[in-house]
Amino acid sequence: GESVGLHLPTLSVQEGDNSIINCAYSNSASDYFIWYKQESGKGPQFIIDIRSNMDKRQGQRVTVLLNKTVKHLSLQIAATQPGDSAVYFCAENTGGFKTIFGAGTRLFVKA
Amino acid sequence: DAGVIQSPRHEVTEMGQEVTLRCKPISGHDYLFWYRQTMMRGLELLIYFNNNVPIDDSGMPEDRFSAKMPNASFSTLKIQPSEPRDSAVYFCASSPKHRASGNTIYFGEGSWLTVV
Rounded distance, CA B14 to CA B116, Å? Predict the structure, then answer.
């Protein structure tokens, strides 16, 4: 799955609300998935990961859901804060260390 | 830990010039990656190394691009000659060896290249 990022999908949420960012991955052989957050002018930063033998994993204020049947990932952010405003990427890995990134979703948090 | 360190952070160069981007991975990480990010194509993996050896360079766009890793603490990505379409943010990233911890990769702040 080569990523194409001409127009990033955008999600706008009110501060305090929950956010759900969705991602469709391309390779049914992928066995490891990661969500990254990229703030303006910075490199992507790891948020949370999940292996293909799981369908849900929770972190601090974040939850990742994996649906292998339809090759879909979601990232849920609870009580979204202004500091959560960024571009969020899902990434897939088919073993080894070759990680392929999705196109990204821009999250705007309105105060 | 200082994280992945890249230089230069910003570079503006003229078409035809040679560009060299530098990276120092996180100490102890066995894997090093070079990514390119553009609005059109998003984040693309160019090449990655394991223990200083190039493993997969299928993402390198053409022969004008080359990458080296002479030792565990240093890598370069070179573009010669540079073209305006090479303008992008180039990220270096590194990852530890242990599969048990997942293949999480840690990115540097990026080198913002503009070729005019």
Answer: 5
The tens digit of pLDDT for each residue in A22-71 reads 999 888 888 889 999 999 999 999 999 999 999 999 999 999 999 999 99
Q: Does A35 touch chain B (CB under 8 A)?
A: no
Give the span between the Cα atoms of A78 and A62, in whole angstroms. Answer: 6
Separation CA A88–CA A76 (nearest Å): 11
Tell me whether residues A44 and B41 touch, CB distance under 8 A.
no
Write the burial class of residue A22 (CB in 10 Å: 0-12 exposed, 13-18 middle, 19+ buried): middle
Q: Which of B43, B47, B51, B105 to mutate to test the interface with A (most CBs of A within 10 A)?
A: B43
What pLDDT sits at residue B90? Answer: 98
**Rounded to an integer, what distance in angstroms lies between the CA atom of residue A4 and that of residue A99?**
15
The tens digit of pLDDT for each residue in A61-72 reads 999 999 999 999
Burial class of A28 by CB neighbour count within 10 A (0 to 12, 13 to 18, 19+): exposed
